[in-house]
């Protein structure tokens, strides 16, 4: 839970300013809805604090994986931390298998829907097996319905 001190704090964390207008981020909009899988996760833990620790660790690993994949898509040669090396190796194998080609201009690309008034940042637009598509990096063990809303 965020403790926003000012309106600007909220706006910085929860959205983007584009052409002088503020738009909420898709990921923040999706956070509002109920997440039954998250409730099941907490129920499987011995206590709430354990769930919070695990959730925080997973979020940190997910961020590290995402940043490393972004660097790889941009043609960089990042140092790969041993804690996420298996995930990065799996990603590299996947990109080879699917002949994924990402244009650097479309990695971490911000998009806005002016009509519906929301914005987001996609991971990459890429050729995947010769077809144009959105490459969205996910690090969870399951596929959740929220992912459809994000993409």
Give an account of the 3D structure.
- 44% of the residues lie in helices and 25% in strands.
- The protein starts with 6 loop residues before the first helix and ends with a helix.
- Helix 3 (36-44) crosses helix 4 (48-73).
- The protein has six helices and five strands, in the order αββααααβββα.
- The model has no long low-confidence stretch (mean pLDDT 89).
- The protein is an alpha+beta fold and 151 residues long.
- A hairpin with a 2-residue loop joins strand 4 and strand 5.
- The strands form two sheets. The protein has a three-stranded antiparallel β-sheet with strand order 3-4-5, with no helix packed on it.
- The chain has helices at 7-14, 26-31, 36-44, 48-73, 85-97, 146-150; strands spanning 15-18, 21-24, 101-113, 118-128, 131-135.
- The radius of gyration is 17 Å and the shape is globular.
- It has one domain.
């Amino acid at each position: 839970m965020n403790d926003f001190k000012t309106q600007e704090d909220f706006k910085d964390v929860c959205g983007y300013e584009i052409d002088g207008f503020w738009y909420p981020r898709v990921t923040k909009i999706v956070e509002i809805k109920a997440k039954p899988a998250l409730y099941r996760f907490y129920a499987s833990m011995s206590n709430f604090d354990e769930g919070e620790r695990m959730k925080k660790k997973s979020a940190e690993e997910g961020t590290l994986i995402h940043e490393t994949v972004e660097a790889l898509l941009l043609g960089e040669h990042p140092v790969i931390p041993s804690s996420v090396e298996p995930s990065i190796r799996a990603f590299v194998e996947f990109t080879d298998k699917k002949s994924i080609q990402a244009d650097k201009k479309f990695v971490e690309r911000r998009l806005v829907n002016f009509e519906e008034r929301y914005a987001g940042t996609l991971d990459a637009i890429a050729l995947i097996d010769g077809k144009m598509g959105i490459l969205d990096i996910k690090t969870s063990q399951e596929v959740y319905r929220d992912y459809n809303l994000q993409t």
